[in-house]
User: Fold this.
Amino acid sequence: MKVTKDTTIGEVLEAKPELEEVLRKYMGEVGCLSCPMRAMETLENGAQVHGIKEEDLNKMVKELNEKL
Assistant:
């Protein structure tokens, strides 16, 4: 699996639940990590909603891929 900005939060967590640690590092303690909508919300959508800068989104995607 290759993670991109278009990968959903749900896909990331299904592939490797431990990656929640990386998501929390960048997104903080947000409810979307356990929300049923995570199946449809992309990493980019989540970043926009939670005010994460493009630069940090790119870092998060890179780190997720490194840990997969």
Remarks:
- The mean pLDDT is 89.
- The first helix runs from residue 9 to 15.
- The chain has one domain: 9-67.
- Residues 9-67 form one domain.
